[in-house]
Amino acid sequence: MSSTTDKSFAILLLSVTLLSAAPTPSTANSDKHISVYSPVALYSLPLLERPGSDYVGLLELLEPLGQVSTVVNGRSLKIRYNATDAEFTAGKTQARIHGHNFDLSAPFLIENSRGLIPLGSLSALLSRFLGAPVNFREAARRLFIGDVGIQPSFRLDASNPPRLLLNFTSPVTPIISQEPGGLRIVFKRDPVVSPGSQSISFDNQVITHAAYSEANGDAELEVTATQLLTACVSTDKKTITISPPVAVAVQPSTVAAHPQNPAQPSPASPASAHRILAVVDPAHGGDERGAALTDTLAEKDVTLGFARLLRHELELRGFAVQLLRDADTNLSLDQRASAANTAHSSIYITLHAVSQGSGVRVYTALLPVEGESRGIFHAWNAAQAPALPISRTVAAAIVAALQKSQFSAQALSASLRPLNNVFMPAVAVELAPGPNGIDDLTSANYQQRAASAVADAASALRDHLGAQP
What we know:
Strand order of the largest sheet: 27-26-28-32-29-31
CATH superfamily of the largest domain: Zn-dependent exopeptidases
Number of helices: 7
Radius of gyration: 25 Å
Strand content: 25-35%
Helix content: 10-25%
Distance between the termini: 30 Å
Number of domains: 3
Number of strands: 32
CATH architecture of the largest domain: 3-Layer(aba) Sandwich
Structural class: alpha+beta
């Protein structure tokens, strides 16, 4: 579990969406890949650089698209894809597919019983196997099978502040990051194509320009502005709204206690609809990758997938849930704490992951010695003090629920920000490998069981959470 440095304290509440991507197999050049988009699967393949040409694995290319089997006999590889048979020979530039000769742009290779196809042959080869139109944009390394392209359109709402609406023909799951002078929106798993023009200018003094590009298997939209921008993805994931942020200033050294009892909420409170608000915070994100769980798996990716499952489990039990990040974005520790405090949530759950040990650890705050509280204000680094007893009750309940679900679990205390900066019950849940080792950290079933146990514990304490000052 790693930490970030404190950053400035003007808070930006971002709502951006990203489908947690599964890691691709590691290679000597694992940063180079091609993206494959089809009606049945969206996936990426590592690019293999060999003398004279670039290659991808034949089995890896076909396996997500249908039933496939291979037999290697010396220098010959026979492959059956659905009802199509083919034979390739190592070192040869000609193959037999469905009884017909097929010319390759470079020699076929066999390495460790694995067949490799040159990139220049992908379109023609897949057309033979699939009987469907295939478009391979070799320069960008993006391969489209059938009519799967997602077309964006732009509409600038010249309000004050202005809003740029990006509408897409299908749901998208972008990575959105703030850049000097605007926003960068990257589509790693979505077949987003050019909006018609690679560059669009807007007659606006704040949001001035948008540009489309694609490279290394990704599509990218860059929005240029004269002010800081934030982005919000709609519930159906078909619209991204871009605008200057609304900043919420909070005094760094102190934090106001909850001004009212959530058991008697104001009309604006989330509890007014008889739903307790839970804030779920996937640790790390953006430049802050967290722990390196494997060579290709970062903690930030595990915590985001785990958070989405926990959100679903809590919602099934009647909670309203706010994810502090729903994409690969940066948030400082102070921003996370302030987002939870200003939302007037009834429970805060931050999620971490480690590669050492096993099971789940549940942490509550270990508070530093701070000065006396002043009226409704509490010292920033001891804001958790009034809620700490119920936090420990929540942690004990989560541990019991996890143990009931056959997890090894324990409750601990740690000087772990931002737990000490939030004034509602707060715990950190740290997921470690299970019986299957590190693979459990990316197992939907393993994460699902843990999320269900955490949600069960929170639901059992609903009345205590709702009664917090």
